[in-house]
Amino acid sequence: MRTAAVIGTGLIGTSAALALTGRGVAVYLEDADPDAARTAAALGAGSTELPEGPVDLAIVAVPPALVGKVLADCQRRGLARCYTDVASVKAGPRAEVAALGCDTVHYIGGHPMAGRERSGPLAARADLFEGRPWVLTPTGDTDTDTLNAALELVALCGAMPIVMDATAHDRAVALVSHAPQLVSSIVAARLEHADETAVRLSGQGVRDVTRIAASNPALWVDILSANAGVVADILQEVAADLDEAVTALRALQAADEGERRAGAAGIEAVMRRGNTGHARIPGKHGAPPTRYESVTVVLGDQPGELGRLFGEVGALGVNIEDVTIEHSDGQQVGHVHLDVAPSAVRLLTGGLRDRGWSVRD
User: What residues does CATH 3.30.2130.10 cover in the chain?
Assistant: First the structure.
């Protein structure tokens, strides 16, 4: 791939453009908002000039509802030899593409499973897709050159290609992305009018659950509108689980001991189902989940402290599998949770304490 065009310079489009320009591909940028395209160009994502002839691949990076219309316009102009999109829903855009009479031989649907809570070109990163799944949804019409062009795009962005049927993709992302987004937002919404004292007690649990609630509402309305039925089905199942949990919690307050036991069993059952579901989420490098143990270090809020901690962990010969930071409200300290192999816990704890670090038991 020597040339590419990116139509839509938001987070995903600009990130793809940055990745491609970093690999020596000449990228041409377009956006309905010229300021957004100019901003992406200023970041080094490409040029806002028109290409002299058809580019090797055009990447349509617009909301799902606009994919068909934008693709039809690009093909009418002869912008590229091959086309793909990065919309987070696939079946609806594919149907519209067919209804508009677009060339489906040289088009393949795509969806990189990556994003951030922030949007727009200024939030873009060249490494956004590294190590992330990138779904491709070819049809019987898709020719080999188009599939290969999309696979090359995925490789240049450092992502992992996964080929799926469009309808199966939409069911999957409803379960692992779209419904969780709404659940996160619903939980966070309970904090909107909460007492300030209660909010100040927020710990890592509520931060983890509500992290994606900071996402752009307008963007998500576009996404959810294109997959509303499937997401509604999943949320209806979640609502049924919530109803059962409410019933079980009420039973825990009952005077009758039998009812209390039934309530406890109900809560335990749903939490055990959660344990089982969580254990199915792929672990490091896509391998089966591994059980790590957490070592908690109290860290002062001074420049270089985190780097010094990581350096000392490395000097001890311990590999950090994951890390989270829990900030203290009102104090200039934080708690760094280092996930390591169980066999490394004693070495790491003792070694850090010997070096003067405060390690929590």
Answer: 293-360
Distance CA 218, CA 302 (A): 38
As a CATH number, domain 293-360 is 3.30.2130.10
Kindly tell me the burial class for residue 307, based on how many C-beta atoms sit within 10 Å of its own C-beta (0-12, 13-18, 19 or more): exposed
- Which residues belong to CATH 3.40.50.720 in the chain? 3-164
pLDDT value at position 226? 87
- Intervals of the chain under pLDDT 50: none
Paired tokens of 28: 């041409």
Where would I find the H helices in 30-143?
A: 34-42, 67-77, 91-99
List the one residue out of 122, 131, 152 whose CA is nearest residue 40: 122
CATH class entry, domain 173-279: mainly alpha
Which CATH number is 3-164's, of 3.40.50.720, 3.10.50.40, 1.10.10.10, 1.10.472.10? Answer: 3.40.50.720
pTM exceeds 0.85, yes or no: no
Q: Residue 324 has what pLDDT?
A: 81
Residue 134's DSSP bridge partners are 112, 161
- C-alpha to C-alpha distance for 165 and 151, rounded to whole angstroms: 16
* CA-wise closest residue to 17 among 33, 5, 35, 34: 5
| CA dist 256 → 247, 262, 316 (Å) | 14, 10, 56
Question: Residues in the chain, how many?
Answer: 361
Comma-separated ranges of CATH 1.10.3660.10 domains in the chain: 173-279
In angstroms, the Cα distances linking 350 to 204, 293, 339, 361 are: 25, 15, 15, 11
| CB contact at 8 A, 79 and 58 | yes
Tens-place pLDDT, residues 162-189 = 999 999 999 999 999 999 999 999 999 9
- The contacts of residue 244 (CB under 8 Å, 6+ apart) are 266, 270
